Amino acid sequence: SYSYIDWTLTVPLMCIEYYLILKPAGAKGGMLSRLIFGSVVMLVAGYIGEAVVPAQNVLWGIISTLGWAIIIYEIYVGEASKLAAASTSEAVKSGYNVMRWFTLVGWAIYPVI
């Protein structure tokens, strides 16, 4: 359960990093709101499944995964992805791609390890 305290800080910070990296490319608050919403769903549902209602951990795991999917959708298909693709800055594109892969792979394997 201590991990959730850490994630409550670090996951929204990662969402803010996406916003800040894409701000020069025209990122708006709505994009940040969608990323934060996905992270809250992911973390709260994960915590409920692990610590509050462990007998229903599969259900809460699925709900948590839906929160993760909101984030993945936004960074691979949504507004964030479109802003990064349209950016003329190689620094923006490079930083965005590193973060995007970390979010996809790192967050996908974390529950397994």
From TrEMBL:
Keywords: Membrane, Transmembrane, Transmembrane helix. It comes from Bacteroidetes bacterium SCGC AAA024-E18. This is Rhodopsin. Belongs to the archaeal/bacterial/fungal opsin family. The keyword Cell division does not apply. One of its GO terms (cellular component) is membrane. It is found in: Membrane. The chain crosses the membrane at residues 6-22, 34-52, 58-77. The keyword Coiled coil does not apply. InterPro entries: Arc/bac/fun_rhodopsins. It holds the Pfam family Bac_rhodopsin. It is a multi-pass membrane protein.
